Description:
Layout: H1 2-14, H2 18-31, E1 39-42, H3 49-58, H4 62-71, H5 77-88, H6 90-99, H7 104-123, H8 128-134, H9 140-147, H10 157-169, H11 173-188, E2 191-194, H12 205-213, E3 218-221, H13 224-233, H14 237-249, H15 253-259, H16 265-274, H17 294-318, E4 333-334, E5 339-342, E6 345-348, H18 367-381, H19 384-396, E7 397-398, E8 401-403, E9 406-409, E10 424-426, E11 429-431, H20 433-449, H21 454-469, H22 483-488, H23 492-495, H24 502-505, H25 509-518, E12 527-530, E13 544-545, E14 550-552, H26 559-565, E15 570-575, E16 578-584, H27 590-596, E17 602-609, H28 620-640
Helix pairs in contact: 1-28, 2-28, 4-5, 5-6, 7-11, 13-14, 13-19, 13-21, 14-17, 16-17, 20-21
Amino acid sequence: MDDKLKFLKLLSESFPTIGATTREIINLKAILNLPKGTEHFLTDIHGEYQAFNHVLKNGSGVIKDKIDDIFGDTLEENFKKQLATVIYYPEEKVNFIQELGIDMDSWYRVTILRLVEVCKVVSSKYTASKVRKALPEDFSYIIQELLHEKEFSYNKKEYVKNIINTIIELDRAKEFIIAISELIQRLTIDVLHIVGDIYDRGPAPHKIMDRLMNYHNVDIQWGNHDILWMNAAAGHKGAIANVVRICSRYSNTDILEDIYGINLLPLATFAMDTYADDECTQFIPKECRNKKNISLMSKIHKAITIIQFKVEAEIIKNNPIFQMEDRILLDKIDLEKGTINIDGTIYPLTDKNFPTLNKENPLELTAEEKEIIEKLKKSFVNSEKLQKHVKFLFSKGSMFLKYNSNLLFHGCIPVNENQEFTKVTICGKTLSGKKYLEELDRVCREGYFNKTDPKRKERAIDFMWYLWCGPNSPLFGKDAMKTFERYFTTDKALHKEVKNPYYSFYEDVDFINKIFVEFDLNPEISHIINGHVPVKEKKGESPIKAKGKLIVIDGGFSKAYQSETGLAGYTLIYNSYGMKLVSHEPFQNVKNAIENCVDIHSSTRIVKRVLERKRVKDTDIGKKLETQIEDLYELLDAYKRGFIKEKH
């Protein structure tokens, strides 16, 4: 009783009177009966900022659906498309309309009225207090007035008309349209979930990070590519080499140099000198926008790749617990014959020029290579913008998330052929399933934030590297990363990376239910939301597994995968009426969207429709609110019984 009374006295600091306590109880109980907010799920964005930004702006079609619901047949289709485009790109669309030379006053008047109608609908899910907090400062009072009045109400018709006319007269219509459009975007989606892999392949992961850092409510489940950059920012040489290699492979080194301030000049100079007479044909970038740079980029690509294999060999030798000795291959090369011995079989190499391999010790970095990787480490650790982005990934991210009876993770839950959760030894503990992922989450944070114990930090960042490519990594989900074989051999059998048995079983309802039990979720109502492995829909593969219990939403945001998947990504919407999966065709460009009102063509399929509309009380937030209400009732009782004195 003493502890409880102490807690209630602390609570009374926030609610010092019976009146304040009852008001909060009434408020919270009312909130419980509001419709559940809309959740938006995206994954495997891989640097494709324009497509990502458009999907974020249109809420995967939710805004277009709202416009259809509100205006129905009363508004022609081309006007509805124009209104949607105004909401997505307000400033750009207004500028475009102005250039057409039409009567802007009339256009402003009609457009503002339509935007207010849309805003009324999207704000109706929330309390007035929550909407007020989201309002743009410059137009807060005006938007509140317009949201709570009907244009043609008997007493307020002229009032509303005069507000809009005055906005136009004061030359603030454009700013008002921008403000209310951004408010509509914000209120349309309550929570954004990013299920991993923001980085690599595409040209603008930094823009995605900047956008997420300004988003009102977001969480991130780390992907293997994200953890690679996080580890590079922590100063891990193996991760740094991989990051530079992938950027050079996709000709995206400007991200490193221009955005993150990573100095690649020592590497470029070394590459040009060392591979001066080498065309490096196996290392020609996949997409090189500047053809003049192909030769230099190919040489950089090869130089960092060899450095990577040497650095990784040392990591593997220092961590026998990883059981990754089969990934050490440079010492299996016969330099004179140009062949390699893999598991007792001799294979010809596609590239036989290895000027930095010491015949006596091929795994040893040359003096120049050591200097290069040290300089790169210094650049990564001291990159202010990269560190800012990575800290955000730690603050908003995790290995997995349980949210409203959904289990979100990027790759897999490692299991063996008997559907048993794989036991992995990490930092002296042998763990599996949920406890394994929880420990990995902790170790990643230790690797980045521990600045005082070098040995513990080194062990932790080695485990972060293991998450990138290790056989029991839940983020990687394969038995081995065959980077060496793909570069240097032509035998397709050597290139094959075997997926964890999880992917063989994830159509099995009983197996999925077993995962729900492991993570303390109700199998009757829960879902797994998964990314990482692109769904090849054009080959007939379905993203919906185990009778709707598991949904894979990687459909090819990355252009590199779109030829395989046949589309340009899936997104998932979970609102008060249920779940719907949205598949997208490739996004053309922003200019076409603004000028021709061209949206991403998307198709929707219902995953789950609820019989009774979900309310806040049915969510995780609702459970917290119910606990708060119980505490407030106890505080109220303490006031009434004289245990606590009101503070008027």
